[in-house]
Design goal:
about 130 residues, 4 strands, Ribosomal Protein L13p, Chain: A, single chain, two-stranded antiparallel sheet, 5 helices, alpha+beta
């Protein structure tokens, strides 16, 4: 019996809509990361993009445990001396809630070209 290896021509990619209302950030991010990679499909192949497309709604209504709204910090650096900027999770949820989920999912994907491609927003296909 030969080992099955998926090819880009025989993969089937679906659109998943995930409602983030009331869900815990980390648990939601693991489910999204698994769906993006295709790990929940029997045709999973690590080096081929067999994952589904994911659309997250109600990103601003996620929940976190403990004092993470005030304690969790998101840092970015401009590259210049003294250029470190920090924002709390609460600030990020007010400004760009979808970015909080994107950063959490990005941390759960491998650091390679395929994962960067899987994380990019894809244009929606319309069936006519």
């Amino acid at each position: 019996m030969k080992t099955y290896v998926a090819t880009p021509s025989d993969r089937q990619r679906d659109w998943l809509i995930v409602d983030a209302a009331g869900q815990t950030l980390g648990r939601l991010a693991t489910q999204i990361a698994d769906a993006l990679r295709g790990k929940r499909k029997p045709t999973y192949t690590p080096h081929i993009d067999t994952g589904d497309f994911v659309v997250v709604i109600n990103a601003e209504k996620i929940s976190v445990t403990g004092n993470k709204l005030e304690d969790k910090l998101y840092r970015r650096h401009s590259g210049y001396p003294g250029g470190l900027k920090t924002r709390t999770l609460n600030d990020m949820l007010e400004r760009r809630p979808e970015e909080v989920i994107r950063i959490a999912v990005k941390g759960m994907l491998p650091r390679n070209r395929l994962a960067r491609k899987q994380l990019k927003p894809q244009p929606m296909e319309t069936k006519s």
